[in-house]
Structures are given as structure tokens and as C-alpha cells.
Structures
1.
Amino acid sequence: MTPQKQPKPAGVPQWQHEMMSLVLRVGLFVLIVLVGANLFPILLIPLADYYAGATLTVFATGSVANAISYRVYERSTLMEAGLEWTIAGRRNLMLGLAMGVGIGALTVIVLVVCGLARIESTGPVSWSSLIFVTVLLLFGAVGEELMFRGYAFQLLAAKIGKFATLLPMAVLFGLVHMNNVGATPLSVINTILWGLLLGYAALKSHGLWLPVGMHYGWNWILPLLGADLSGFKMGVTGLRLNAPETSWAGGAYGPEASLVLTLLLPGLFYLLYRMPVPRQQALLLRGVED
């Protein structure tokens, strides 16, 4: 299915019409995100704890904003954002999971081996918590990718170019994490770098399953190893990564605020650049060179 072209008003230059259309389409997406981000917490947080309610808010907001934008402007569905469950999509999800889990585990291993942090035992594995967190983190990863690498990101990449889109969206991704518990300037910088990496993954794969896998793999492995995740503490496996409040260790924010991650991320960029990736068929990315 191809995007529907809107008729150009008489007397309006083509470039101006296209710019107005772009502003309207991105504006509707942003408006829905803002409304959802304020409405869904009222509905969802009372039903669960704060973290679960906040995570489900992200998922609901991202899903609704994309579904409405694709239906209104593209006469299409949410799946056209690059979530089709095809062979390429499944392979990209597995590839992304391997990369996310790998970089997360490597970061913690370097912290421990270099004496920058230590892993302590705090008790037995909480299997119910582990299953709950495993499912919840998947909703969070899908929701954030829909919000930051979904309709608005893909539309801007198609209309103004991938390079003009990647950095601003990555900076926005970093800034929205500024108010997390324990956030530092370095945690924001690392989150911006993650935003660049995930945006590049979406453009390279022409879909969302690769960045979803990378995002989810990172978010999943850290709690399993006892590390804090973006300022949140989740005791699920009876392990605790004790990291002091230093730039090298990350402190209360977790490894995302660590210089170790800053040094490792360029290697992950290079690996993704060199790696053959199955191409999906996200509607708005079909004409964008990876």
C-alpha cells in the first residue's frame, strides 16, 4: 500500500504545500503523543505500580499515535511502521536481541573485571517477578520504538533525509530521560548515542524489529545481572550490581551512565554497519537508502 497524495491548494508552491503537509502530519503525531502521555498514566498507574503503569503508558501512547497517524494520512495500519511478522522481521528481532544482550552483558563484565563494580547475592530468584519484568520490558521497548522510530521518524527520514532526522530524534530521545532517577549528563549523552544507534538500525533494516530487539535485549539483561536500568531497581534474580557513583561505574542510574558503555558503543555501531541485515518493508522507508 502506498501513501495517499493530498491535493495541492491552488496557487501554493509545491515545496510550501509539502512543508505544510509534513508539519501537519508530524504535528498530529506529536499532539497524540502529548495527550496520551498525560492521559494514560491517570488510567494505568492506579491499576499497577508506578513502573508498570509508566511502561504501559509508553506502549499505549506509541501504539495509538502510530495507529491513528497511519490510518489518517496513509490509509494504512500500525503494522506498516515495520512491525510485520515476516521472516525478515523475525530474523531482525533475533539479531537485535543478540546485540542488545551482548552489549549489556559485556558492559557489566567489564565493570566487574576492572573492579569498577561488584555483583552481590541478595537472595533467591523471584520467578514471578522475572516473568513479569520480562513481559513488561517488551511492551516498553516496543512502545519507545514506536514513539521515537515510528511514524514521525520514518516520515521525516523520507521527506527531509536520514541525516537530518537521526540526530534531532536521538537528542529528543536522550532529553526525555533527563528526569529519570540518578540521571547525569553522561547518561543523557549515552542515551543520545543509543538513539542514534537505534535510529540507524531502523533505517538499515527498513523496519522496527531490529531496534526493538536491541532495545529489549539491553533492557532485559541488565536487571538479570542485578544492574539498575535507567534509574529503576528491579530485584528479580537475587543478584545486585553494586556500582559506585562515578562516571566509570554509572551509579544509581546504572550502566547507561557509565563511561564503559560510552567506549563500547562505537564498536556496536561498527558491527551493525558491517553486518548484513534482512530488509523489511516499512511503508515510509521503502524509498530511503540505508
2.
Amino acid sequence: VEIGGFQSLYTWRNPPPSLLEAEIAPQADFVLSFAGLAPRIAERRVEVTALGDDTWRIVAVVENRGFLASSGSHRAREAGLARPVRLELDLPDGVTLVGGTARVDVGHLEGRSNKMAGGWFSSSATDNRGKAEWLVRGAAGATLTLHVDGQRGGRFERVIELA
């Protein structure tokens, strides 16, 4: 508590330039280490299997390689402030979806934070992964685009060729 009001000299001003770097450095280290805990959604594998008659099975598996869950926190998940990880298949002309839905929510993916206890106390060894499957019909050589949106864990695209 500041009795007598704010001392603007010490509240709103930077330290002298000669002391500024020493004052800021520990704060920057903290911010960078905290940012390193963020969720990071990445591709685990994408498989394309020919089933005959220009029909293809596509399996995509993504994973959270970060420390925190893809929601950022359990409270954000409970309050509905974080969207689940979403995989969406973008089909070109001439390719149709036979099985599955173009957009699949694979839920929130855990990070490494829940695996620290180890042993039988930890959750599933694969609760940091999500999987989606589709059946498509199209000519060999057609290219589709997989869009992955982890909201707080990042976004990426992957071009898939039917081959």
C-alpha cells in the first residue's frame, strides 16, 4: 500500500538507462521460459491407403508436444474459453467425402504436465494425441489439404496426395 498516493518517479518511469538492462533481463527470462510451456500442436502421422475403385482411407494423427494442455488450463476448458483441436479436410473438385465429416473436433489434448507423476497415477500415455479418419473418392494424384487448428496450440496445413 502506498500511503499518500503514487510516487510517479518510482511508479511510471524506467530506471536510469545504465540500470535498465539489469532490471529487465530477469523479467525477459521468465517470460521466455513461461512461453516455452505453451501447447504446440504438431503432425504425428498422416496415412493414405488405396481401397480400390478410386476410394481412399485417410488417417491423420496430431499431438500436443507442449507442456500445457491445448486448452491452456483446465479452467479455460471448463468455462468454454478454449476450442478443442480441430482437423478439417478441404476437398478439391472431383473428390468427394464418402465416410466421416469434413471437420472433426478431436477434443483437448493434454501436454506433458499431466505425465509428471508417472506410474499408475498418470493418465493415458496417448492423451496428448487426437485422430481423425475419412473415406474419400477421387482420382489418384488429386491433392487435398488438411487444416489443423489448435487455437492456443497453433495452426498448420498439410497437403495430402491421393497416391
3.
Amino acid sequence: MSVMNREPGIHPTALVHKDASLGEGVRVGPYSIIEANAEIGAGSMIGSHVRIESCVRMGSANRVFQGAVLGSPPQDLKFRGEESFLTIGSGNTIREYVTMNPGTGEGEETRIGDENMFMAYVHVAHNCRIADQVIIANAVQLAGHVEVEEFAILGGMTPVHQFVKIGAHAFVGGGSRVAQDVPPYLRVAGSPPRVAGLNLVGLQRRNFPMDSLEELKKVYRVVYRQDLNLSQAMDKLDSEEIKDTHALRFLDFILKSERGITR
């Protein structure tokens, strides 16, 4: 590896390729490796023994802790060494020994948004999409093509099946085994997971208006508490005037689910 001239903030034992792009004020800890063409935005902190490979495009003010590996090849038999990317936004916290893979497929990517928390030993597989302000607790394992919408929270030791989608503001309890989509605004837990109601505490903390909470309660009761199958529930709700944007988002998520929803 061709190593760049030493700059303030880069530890003498770190190996930073001369063709890596580091923004102003980036700090790199002992024994970390940053490969050619990797991009790290201004004000980011890279801890010790971190490896950042050439496919990584990272925004500003991220914190990456000891032993994390970002951009190693996908654990996917379909991957043939094509050029793909791991794109990370700004303000993320990536704790110890987190692993994140780039996408499978030419030009494909794994995309991480802004201000997310990835606790220790989380794995984010190829082609995942993580939105903004998501919290993913210790040792959560996301398989390929998983999507997690904004403000969702995943409890520790939770495996998520490939192609599953976790809706916005959802709360998934620790140790759940998630194999079907989790609609937004819900609490689920268990293995297999069961729905435990709306995530009312989380919604209230985020200042959801009372009108929206009441509409969400109404559509939730029809889908989950009236002993109707999904088609019957959708037919019943079609006959009612649902105007609240959050309630409509809840229903749209269910209608577009390809793996089926957690019941």
C-alpha cells in the first residue's frame, strides 16, 4: 500500500493510501487501514484497528470505533468482484466490530443515511438500505436487501431475513427473528415475532399530533384486532375516509408488502 505523508490527526501506525480522500479534520487511530479511493468526510473520527475499503463513500462527522470493517466484499455467492459501493451519510455512530458490505451487482450499493446508531457487532449485508436516525442495537444481523425506514429501533441479537422491510418508527424487541415485513409505527417482539400494539411511547416522544395517533389506532384495530383477514381489513378501510398521512402510510406499506406483514 502506498502511504500518504503524515498529517495531523493521523496516527503514525495507520496505513492511509495516498489516493484516499480525507476531509478536513479527519482523525485516524492506530493501526487502521484506509484503502485507495475511499472517501471520508470532514470531521470524522476513525478509531483504532478499523479497515475502510476502497468502495466506501462516507459523509461528514461520522464516528467509527475500534475494529469496524467497512466495505469488505459481500458475503454473497453471486458477487463476482464487480464495482459496487458502500455509501454512508453523515453523523453516524458505528461502534466496535460492526461490519458493513457493499452492494452485489455492477454499480449497486448498500446505503446508510444520516445520524444512525449501529451498536457493537452489528452486521449490515449487501444491498441494504438504512434511512435516518435509526437505532440498531448490539449483534443485530441484517441479511441482504433489508430496508429499515427512519426512526426504527431494532433490539439486540435480532436476525432479519433477506428482503424484509422494517417500517418507520417501528420498535422490534431484542432477540426477535424477523422473517416478514414490520409495518411502520408498531411494536413487535418474540421468535416468531408477534405484534404488541402501536409504538405509542416512541410516537409521543416525537410529538406526533393527537389526531394522527387516533387515526393510527383506528386503522391498527381494523387490521390487527377485529379478527379479519388482510383483504377483509383493507376492504373495510377502503369504505372509510382515511386522510391522515401517517395512517395512509401505514396502509400503503401493508399493500406494497412483498413478504407479507408480521401478524
4.
Amino acid sequence: MDFGDTIEGHRRVIPITGGADWNLTRRDGGSSVEADYYLRTDDGVVIRNHNQGVRGNEAASAAPDAPETFFMYTIPTFKAPASSRYDWMNRAVFIGTLQGRKGQTGAVLIRVFKLV
């Protein structure tokens, strides 16, 4: 859903599997993302992920038909059931990256790294 130009910049909401991505291309050429979605683990546990990211305007010249040039840093947070084996995710700090997948329009690769 494209909201067009707003006071903040160009705003879009992109549906993703299990949630939505609120995307903003800022007036300074940078961009930010705020995604909220749910993951289901192999053993059936549902975990909420809220992922915020930003990239500077140095990437503004990336060609839209070259998704592999899209890259940003993210700060994911997880909400796992306290009674599950994933409860440790509720108390950990993560950073991540988000980038386009080469040869796959509309697909991204998300990497998450635990800091603490």
C-alpha cells in the first residue's frame, strides 16, 4: 500500500508473511523500516518479532531492479512464550541485517546476531 509523499518522506506499507513492513524513504535519501511479524519455529512455537532498521542516503542510488544492492542494519526484538524453550530470547539483545536477495524480486535475507 503506497501512501505517497508525507511530511516524513515517501511512506509504504508492505505486506509480508506473518505481518507487515512500514517503510519510509526519507527526504534526505535515507530510509527506515519497522516490521512486525510472527515466526513459527520447527517445533510449533509462535514468536513475535519487531524489527526496526535504518540505512543512510549513501544507498539511495541503488537501482530498484538490483535488489542485492539494498542493505540496512536492524534491531530485532523478540517476544517468545515464557513457558517455552525460547524464553531466553525475551532477555537477549540482537542486531541484524536486511538485504535484497540476488535474482529474487520481493524477497529479502534477514540475518540476526545475538549480542547479550
